[in-house]
Amino acid sequence: MSSPFKRNISLIGDINFTGIELTDSKNFAAGLPAIKVALQHTFKEMGALEALSTLSHMNQKNGFDCAGCAWPDPEKPSKLGEYCENGAKALAEEATYKKVDADFFKKYSVEEISTWSDFKIGKSGRLTRPMLLKEGSLHYEPIEWNEAFSLIAEQLKTMESPDEAIFYTSGRSSNEAAFLYGLFVRAYGTNNMPDCSNMCHESSGVALSETLGIGKGSVKLEDFDEAEVIMVIGQNPGTNHPRMLSALEKCKNNGGKIISINPLEEAGLIRFKDPQSFSGITKGTSLTDIHLQVKINEDVALLKLIMKRLIQLEKTGKKVLDHQFISTYTDGFEDFQKDLERYTENELLERCGVRQEAIDKTVALLSEKNKIIICWAMGLTQHKNGVDNIKECVNLLLLKGSLGKPGAGTCPVRGHSNVQGDRTVGIMHHVSEELNETIKSVFDFTPPNKEGMDTVKALEAMHEGRAKVFMGLGGNFVSAVSDTRYAAEALQNCSLTVQISTKLNRSHLITGKTALILPTLGRSEKDESHGKDRFLTVENSMGKVHRTKGVLKPKSEHLKSEPEIIGGIANAYFKNDHPVSWKELGNDYDLIRQKMSETLKGFESVQKASKGTGYYLPNNVRNLDFSKLENGKAQFSTCKLAEHSVKQDEFILMTIRSHDQFNTTIYGLNDRYRGIKNERRVLFMNQRDMDTFNYKTLDVVDLVSNYDNIERRAKRFLIIPYNIPQGNLAAYFPEANMIVPHNHYAEKSNTPISKSIIVHLERGA
Ligand SMILES: Nc1nc2c(c(=O)[nH]1)N[C@H]1C(S)=C(S)[C@@H](COP(=O)(O)OP(=O)(O)OC[C@H]3O[C@@H](n4cnc5c(=O)[nH]c(N)nc54)[C@H](O)[C@@H]3O)O[C@H]1N2
Ligand SMILES: Nc1nc2c(c(=O)[nH]1)N[C@H]1C(S)=C(S)[C@@H](COP(=O)(O)OP(=O)(O)OC[C@H]3O[C@@H](n4cnc5c(=O)[nH]c(N)nc54)[C@H](O)[C@@H]3O)O[C@H]1N2
Ligand SMILES: [Mo]
């Protein structure tokens, strides 16, 4: 019997060390070094002239939205430039002059490319034409668009049930593309729409929906000007949302205070030197007033302690809580208060590991203020108790009446530039009966009403052979999800994998039997049809919808826009036998917007209103309208403390981003603010732990996790002494994804536990 053809693909590529240099970690973010690095990256990839002229259009009214993070633009963008160092890197990455063309794939087999590091793979350049990897072949070869569309349509038709196909989305797609994609997937007959947000802010969505009735944040950018206190929890804005530092600076200049809660003292939260102002370049603004160095995943303990102390203070006669707000707008206060009494201050203090004086200062500050904003990101969401982490933040805001007024509210800081919009316009594995009804009346077909799969369920289904076709609208699924080995096996089980992408990544190498690459236009590129420029829309982290229009000449004449590609696939699948005219819709974004306005709440005037700086979608928390929740009130929650059983030789490890990456795209090998030059395989460790276990700086170790008696290993990391709590470790994602178990994730949100993985270390070679 001949064995089935299996390509010999490396899961993570080259793990040789790249020549580390250690420097001092920094105590400020941005400043002149940021300008220098921004220019270095863009000049290198694009040339100086094009770089400067393109950057001047970024985040401006008639330009394009930065494809990096989802931080909003101010009403009046700075004329000097409304972008940050890492936005410039995102542009350089997309607008690079380097190309991955048919010759490239002729020269290099997928096996060979897979032995390269992710850094080298990404730097190969932009994808330029549709490519096919045939069953049994090791080289991609060119394919015409129409043939690619037919091939996908044929495969989709051979599925025994539409639920055997998976349609993933990453949050860079426009509202129009995501809406059309969701519509096609439903017309095909499944809700299998896993999304990058399942691994990201899903815990926020669940917690906020259950407590406040909307899965999004409530603050607007202006609220940062008025806030008395901003708490930044489990987030590293200096690297991942650098433009947020300007908003924090404004708060400080207006007399506000900043509390950061993080196992690390991140440079971006210490001091900010605004590269767009003169004083910024010289001395800058100190940001954090109180840093609470919490142990990994002990935020619930810390927040409980703070709230317990606030309630006690109130009992001494001081006015600390907003009783008026609590009685008018909330439900469950008594139970919440009773639950807090179960814990002693000492036990909470010991668990969170924070110094008593820092807690005292925090309690004193919060007791006097009631315009509080809480910002958070992956440090809270990616734990088993991720949903409770966020509910505990909501509890604090409810106690203080810090919602629905200027300068106060919730601020989950989103990741991808349109991850929030994609969900708003219908990328969702849950069934919404309301949306299904509207789709039925607008488009004249009946969408499926069976719950679909999120990323963890999709992974399992492919692994077990219950799903056979995988399509990715952007992203790099295999490197982004947990458990790289399991993920690779899952994708390699598929009969067909399709990636709609701008740049080459590992998901083009670890594929199904047959694989397709469909290259698409990037945000920064002109999207022309019949000589006319088209525009798209996106939604930022604060619920504002606005337009985006590229300015650069597309990298190749073969590229299609995302809506065109989706329209093409749908048209090949349905031929003309469907009430929706897919091809027409894919080509005409005005028509898509027209349909969005008929289908989606808040999009009634998207066509007109998205002009200029855009418009806000409805948000019930801003109006203190909790009518959809139990008793018509915002809900207090009783949250559990985290549970970890960590043995003597084990640690809790968080996977974090370096300053030189965008998720699985590696811009460079430095992590400037943390003092690392030219290496990604590093492990941050407390010096006392190093002494206890007899490790020296730059000793080599493997990271080993053991869940359910399965040993998972990530090889070869260099130990770096770092200011991190004892018992905690940090390494970069995606390298460390080898050790994240696919079947351990947050309760209710299914977000993988990427920030609290129990590991032990083994000395490596
Ligand atoms: N340049 C750049 N920008 C990006 C991205 C990128 O990769 N590069 N990614 C985008 C995406 S998709 C996202 S989701 C965001 C991610 O933005 P972040 O969430 O800021 O990214 P992470 O590096 O995952 O950092 C998490 C932070 O949480 C802290 N942390 C970890 N565990 C805990 C904990 O248990 N408690 C507390 N309190 N803190 C903890 C870490 O020390 C770290 O500072 O950024 C977006 N923007
Ligand atoms: N261990 C660990 N794992 C994590 C995380 C973590 O903190 N730790 N973070 C998680 C989070 S928050 C997220 S959001 C996910 C990210 O998961 P993904 O969104 O799947 O990953 P990205 O690396 O952002 O995807 C990059 C690829 O997107 C494609 N791309 C870029 N721009 C465009 C575009 O405009 N259109 C199209 N069609 N394609 C484009 C390029 O080909 C590029 O290679 O990873 C998650 N995984
Ligand atoms: Mo994310």
TrEMBL record:
Coiled-coil segments: none
Domain of life: Bacteria
Keyword vocabulary terms for this entry: Iron, Iron-sulfur, Metal-binding
Entry annotated with the keyword Iron: yes
GO biological process assignments: cellular respiration
Record-linked InterPro entries: Asp_de-COase-like_dom_sf (IPR009010), MopB_CT_YdeP (IPR037951), MoPterin_dinucl-bd_dom (IPR006657), Mopterin_OxRdtase (IPR006656), Mopterin_OxRdtse_a_bac (IPR010046), Prok_molybdopt-oxidoreductase (IPR050123)
GO molecular function: 4 iron, 4 sulfur cluster binding; formate dehydrogenase (NAD+) activity; molybdenum ion binding; molybdopterin cofactor binding
Keyword flag tRNA-binding: no
One Gene Ontology term, aspect cellular component: membrane
PANTHER family: PROTEIN YDEP, RESPIRATORY NITRATE REDUCTASE
Listed name of the protein: Uncharacterized protein
Source organism (scientific name): Maribacter cobaltidurans
